[in-house]
Amino acid sequence: MIFHPILEKFHLIILLEDINLTEIFFENFLYIHHKTFIFSHSIYLFSTILQKTFIIWL
Known about the structure:
The protein is an all-alpha fold. It has one domain. The chain has helices spanning 6-16, 19-33, 37-49. The protein is globular.
């Protein structure tokens, strides 16, 4: 399910600093972009550790 553009989701994650929201986002990220589980999981762990870090996708 597509809720918001990717950058908007990242903005919400950064703004709310909510691990649950992060988890929901990366589940959608995995589905929408067809990334491997390992890749998405590594990003999820990274975002969990550095929740206050801005992640910019170029």
